[in-house]
Amino acid sequence: KWKGEGTTQNLENIVIGRCYDYIRIVNPAVGEKNCSQIWEAFKNAFINKDPCSILPKDYELFINLSLHTIPPNKSLFWENNQLLVNSFAGRGRRYMSLGDTLFGFFGDFLNWCGQADSPGLDYESCPTTMECENNAVESFWRMASITYAQLSSGVIHVLLNGSADGGAYPQPGFFADYEIPNLQKSKISQIVIWVVDDIEGPDIDSCGIHSVKTLETRLKTLGYDVTCTDNNKSVMFLLCLD
């Protein structure tokens, strides 16, 4: 048995339903998509395989079938604050975070894995990233993150948690390892960093110091126009409301 929780019950129904929800209600602008075909491509990325030997490229067909554009100036990257980002993005009304794209919406908050030499899903347990990095979920989000970064353009925003243990900009991390290296510099006019502390939480990290300074330096060295703001008012209002 693996240490992680097993595949989410009713996974197929959930993700096909999410796909139709997305193209009909959340973001009809993406146009017609074949949700059953997208599910098959998703499943075939990890089914019948050793659950510790799934690679990001195994999801290429799934990504290609679910791909759509991200409007310029709408990209919102993040670390350590997923629920806040979901609220703030407003399902694409304000921003379009990875979880607000069709391919991200498809897998958000779900768990899944297959079994070697079996066409079934494993509902008992799935490997954690500590047990093996090349598991079905980790590789899915790596591929999704790479794709999301490549599609982002205009002014891009990064929302970081200034109260996070170990700093607002974790290394290793999805933003550091998969998103920054895949940004298309020619398509990006500015990178806006927002560092927001939890309400009544510790102020561990801020613009210009600690890990945020490391991030600012990295982005500036890469030639980006970077600005950074502590405790952006709009985000703080949302935190207060919650």
TrEMBL record:
Species name: Myiagra hebetior
PANTHER family: ADP-RIBOSYL CYCLASE (PTHR10912), ADP-RIBOSYL CYCLASE_CYCLIC ADP-RIBOSE HYDROLASE 2 (PTHR10912:SF4)
Keyword tRNA processing: no
Family the entry assigns: Belongs to the ADP-ribosyl cyclase family.
Enzyme Commission numbers on file: 3.2.2.6
Descriptive protein name: ADP-ribosyl cyclase/cyclic ADP-ribose hydrolase
Signal peptide: none
Entry keyword NADP: no
Enzyme superclass (EC): hydrolase
Keywords noted in UniProt: Disulfide bond, Hydrolase, NAD, Transferase
Pfam families named in the record: Rib_hydrolayse
Lineage: Eukaryota, Metazoa, Chordata, Craniata, Vertebrata
Assigned GO CC terms: plasma membrane
GO terms of molecular function: NAD+ nucleosidase activity, cyclic ADP-ribose generating; phosphorus-oxygen lyase activity; transferase activity
Alphabetized InterPro entries for the sequence: ADP-ribosyl_cyclase
